[in-house]
Automatic annotation (TrEMBL):
This is N-methyl-L-tryptophan oxidase. It comes from Pseudomonas tensinigenes. Its EC number is 1.5.3.2. Residues 7-369 form the FAD dependent oxidoreductase domain. InterPro entries: FAD-dep_OxRdtase, FAD/NAD-bd_sf, MTOX. Keywords: FAD, Flavoprotein, Oxidoreductase.
Length: 392
């Protein structure tokens, strides 16, 4: 006997939690399934904080999405009393001997350009002002440029997932946690989802399985998704440096190439640490094989190459570390599209390491897709079509 529902959501991380919440809120009979117990630290949505900003240097197509997310985080805060979105202010800066102020690929310059185009409140800061206002970046080159977005900051991913799942359940969603989807098939009438405990039949399915997504996309598309292990570090701050309560969220480009960009979060009152990380795209892994421990050598390397002589007031002592994973497409943009072979199924990639800020709004859009087959947001640039002719 199979259970029946209107929609099944596979995976209840950032994307799935937002989707089941929006569906349940709209009165849809939805079942969410997760192999773990979200929020958990085995996917892509853990580590206390995620950057959010209106001027999304990754591309103009993201600006309307993140605007909707900011609205929804505030709605969720009002509903639950939880603090989810901290407008700590966001500093994006480039300081490098090789900096070319005409370089169209520079992340800070792209961010400034988008803010100007979309009328996003911001300030452009020359080196002197960066040093004055943010003494932790006192070592910047004279040619450095900064972008400060006062409304930017961070969201708390575990809390965001938790409140959306709780609200979804309160509004009638059924959530099966600790249960793994093992098979999917579809026909004209709907989708059959098999788990290690039951079979469900639904009108629609949303697949948002994060790092595990490759197994559901099928050949040749699965090759579009590569999983990269990432490390997060919470460095102890020098208590005399005045960083606690006075530091912004930041993205710091200090040279050319992925390994010359780091990002970090404010040192918050009550916490004597600053979370700082960088991203790597050279060594691939898989959801099954990922090494979840961070070695002392990795912590030392991070401090020496990303922190030392760049961010003042941060000591080399690591108070906490974590491993998380990006699932990245060849152009580092999202894949959001109807599944290439399964009917009635929407496929949502884990969003190439920059999806959390958009997740609340995307959940709202995915719920619209389930209910009426279209979305208010234009998601066409995330279609699989862009890879046609490029697949092996
Ligand atoms: C280190 C790091 C830093 C990041 N920083 C930022 C940032 O600053 N700003 C930003 O916007 N974004 C950031 N991101 C990206 C963002 O966090 C991700 O895009 C987003 O969290 C992905 O959410 P998801 O729902 O796709 O995946 P997940 O949250 O991982 O959820 C997938 C879920 O699917 C479940 N699942 C998988 N397979 C099955 C199955 N067979 N059956 C049942 N359940 C299954 C898993 O258990 C999991 O809970 C960062 C990511 C990482 C890793």
């Amino acid at each position: 006997m199979s259970e029946r529902c209107e929609v099944v959501v596979l995976g209840l991380g950032a994307m799935g939690a937002a989707t089941v919440y929006q569906l349940a809120k709209a009165g849809v009979n939805v079942v969410g399934i997760d192999r773990h117990h979200p929020p958990h630290n085995l996917g892509s949505s853990h580590g206390d904080t995620r950057i959010t900003r209106l001027s999304v240097g990754e591309g103009a197509q993201y600006v309307p999405i993140v605007r909707n997310s900011h609205r929804i985080w505030r709605e969720l805060e009002a509903l639950t009393g939880e603090s989810l979105f901290e407008q700590s202010g966001l500093l994006v800066l480039t300081s490098s001997a090789e900096f070319d102020p005409e370089d169209p690929t520079d992340f800070t310059l792209r961010t400034i350009g988008l803010a100007q185009t979309y009328g996003i409140e911001h300030e452009v800061l020359p080196a002197e002002q960066i040093r004055q206002r943010f003494p932790q970046f006192a070592n910047v080159h004279d040619s450095a440029v900064g972008y400060f977005e006062p409304g930017g900051g961070f969201v708390r991913p575990e809390r965001c997932i938790d409140v959306q799942l709780k609200l979804a359940e309160q509004q009638g969603a059924t959530l099966y946690k600790g249960e793994t989807v093992t098979g999917i098939s579809s026909n004209e009438e709907g989708v059959t989802v098999t788990t290690d405990r039951r079979t469900l039949f639904a009108n629609k399915l949303v697949i948002s399985a994060g790092n595990w997504n490759g197994e559901w996309l099928g050949e040749p598309y699965e090759n579009l998704l590569t999983v990269y292990r990432q490390k997060l570090f919470w460095f102890e701050v020098d208590e005399n440096a005045g960083l606690v309560g006075h530091s912004p969220t930041f993205i710091f480009t200090h040279g050319r190439g992925d390994d010359k960009i780091n990002y970090g979060f404010p040192a918050l009152p009550g916490e004597s640490s600053m979370k700082i990380a960088t991203a790597q795209y050279h060594t691939a892994t898989s959801a099954q094989a990922i090494d979840r421990t961070v070695s002392a050598a990795e912590a030392r390397d991070m401090f020496e190459h990303q922190v030392q002589d760049r961010i003042a007031g941060v000591t080399s002592k690591v108070l906490k570390s974590a491993v998380c994973a990006y699932t990245v497409t060849p152009d580092r943009h999202f894949i959001i599209d109807e599944h290439p072979s399964l009917q009635h199924t929407l496929f949502v990639s884990a969003c190439s390491g920059h999806g959390f800020k958009h997740s609340a709004a995307l959940g709202e859009a995915f719920a619209q897709w389930c209910m009426r087959g279209s979305t208010d947001l234009d998601l066409s640039s995330f279609s699989l079509k862009r890879f046609e002719g490029k697949l092996s």
